[in-house]
Amino acid sequence: MLTLHQIKENTACVIKGLEKKNFKGAKEAIDKVLEIDKKRRETQQLLDKTKQEAKLLAAQIGQLMKEGKKEEAETVKQKVAEYKSNDKQLQETLNEAEEELIQVLCQIPNIPYDEVPEGRTAEENRIVKSSLRECTDCDCVGNWTTIPENGEAKLPHWDLAAKHKLIDFDLGVKITGAGFPVYTGQGARLQRALINFFLDEAQKNGYTELIPPTLVNSASGYGTGQLPDKEGQMYHCQADDFYLIPTAEVPVTNIYRDVIIDEKDLPIKNCAYTQCFRREAGSYGKDVRGLNRLHEFSKIEIVRIDTPAHSRQSHQEMVEYVEGLLKKLELPYRILLLCGGDQSFTSAVCYDFEVYSAAQQRWLEVSSVSNFDTYQANRLKCRYRRAGDKKIELCHTLNGSALALPRIMAAILENNQTADGIRIPKCLVPYTGFDFIT
What we know:
This protein is of the alpha+beta class. It contains 13 helices and 19 strands. Strand 6 and strand 7 (242-244) form a beta hairpin. The longest helix has 41 residues, at 26-66. Mean pLDDT is 92; it is low at 134-144.
């Protein structure tokens, strides 16, 4: 969440940032924060004052008793008791104000960086790079792949999956419901190949592999900002108050909740493969067919904890890393800088990666790489101790999909159709053990 220091020192900039993010009632929300904070500080000052006065009076009681002034001592005792009673009421008022302040702050999203473009919808995102030789709709750079030809003659991945017995969507419906596919035969091996390839690449690039839980408590959901913002989109085990994770970002980042890290140990680079679970309430139409939008799917996540001074460089390195994966998979891709209105609740800046689906003839999002600045760290109380003056400050947190498997698999199947079958990208052949699905 935003810090009080941010809000109080840069009120106008915060309001402007929230408006860029299309947050309705930005000024009203910030005014409310400032009002509650004023009440909290005034109550704290009054409480401190009455406690000090009670302490000074209490110190007189013993001396009065020694001097035989019992009546005066009793009068002072009564005053001290009155102060304590008043202190109790003030403490309750203070606790209520602090609780209300946190509740309001949790409803306010992160503010975007200056480079984030204005805009409200995905159509206003800025294409900053494309791998296509001919990209006429932007000023981006890149020139090494083309959109596969004869897209209209290619089968969509759900037909290819049925033809080659790679994925059984109907069986998933039988076992669980729509959005829970069963991978079979070479489809399962391709899925496993992608997982192992992505994990090996992450290790080569200095990421430490973790295997975290896929169930988290509400404190973890709160720490990374899924709660309360995305509560309706998460599967909730009510009996134990656990949530199924929507991404490995949640458990991996929460490792550093209530932790103070030495600056010399930053940046921390972790990766994790997990199953991910999303209710995707309200999704419908062509965007949900086949692997396009699932309730359960596999994903490899990269997470960094860094200093404010170095986090932008970390973010750029993560973007370049994900781009490198798509190049090795030989997929047409483009990179978009999300506009303010299309950013997530918690991000300060985010780049989306999309791959082109030949059969569907459209772009599919396969990764988001985000810098959250101090927003998550403030919730998590994730801090670092500076090397020089030992001052303790909030860390920056970053994460990215590297990569989410469903749409990557869909793009591989659709873009690599040949007369001999479906060609497997060269980088995956050592993992699959076959170079064609026939």
